Amino acid sequence: MRRPDRVRGGTAGMTLIELMFACGILAMALAMIFGSLISISVIGRITESRTEAVTVLASVLEEIRALPYERVLTYTPPPNMEGPGVAHAVSVACVSGGAPVGETGDTTGTLPTLALPLAPDFGGSLPNPLEVQVTVRWRESSGHVFQASASVLKEK
Predict the structure, then answer these.
(1) What is the DSSP letter of 95?
(2) What would the mean pLDDT of 119-125 be, rounded to a whole number?
(3) At residue 57, what are phi and psi to the nearest 5 degrees?
(4) How far apart are CA 119 and CA 106, in angstroms?
């Protein structure tokens, strides 16, 4: 038996429209994949800087836990601490135990704090136990500003 000859104009190949449609679908899929890779990279960088900030925060809290009550009041974080991002700041404060700020006319309702270290001639009374708050603020190279905070109670 003989094979029949192919008829000209049959359906053996792809038309130009089908090829353009397939290329368009492929281009959209690649754009979504590359977009998600960029997002994953940005999220990874943010997570890494948050992890570094929490490490700095934990080390300051451990130093404060190890100090006696009297030395906590004069505590200053080491100036050479490496932190996340381009610029960072570690601030330490204690809750003074006075009336909440919201009761004195302010509407925030937060307790008043005193920045550490306190002056040697500080004559005010502080509560026992004393709540010491540590805050790490940093700015990434992209310009975003982040903050992580924690507190610890110190007894006399």
Answers:
(1) E
(2) 76
(3) -60, -45
(4) 26
Cβ neighbourhood burial of 18 (10 Å; 0-12, 13-18, 19+)? exposed
Coil, strand, or helix at residue 130?
strand
| Amino acid identity for residue 54 in this structure | V
Tokens describing residue 110: 């937060």
* 87-95: strand order across its sheet: 113-115, 87-95, 130-139, 145-154
Q: pTM value?
A: 0.65
Distance CA 111, CA 101 (A): 6
CB burial of 73-83 (b: ≥16 within 10 Å; e: otherwise) equals bebebeeeeeb
Give the SS3 label for residue 116: coil
User: pLDDT, tens digit, for every residue of 26-55?
Assistant: 999 999 999 999 999 988 888 888 888 888
Residue 136: CB atoms within 10 A of its CB come to 27
| pLDDT digit string, tens, across residues 53-72 | 888 888 889 988 998 888 88
CA distance 117 to 42: 37
DSSP character for 56? H
Q: Which two tokens stand for residue 155?
A: 């007894």
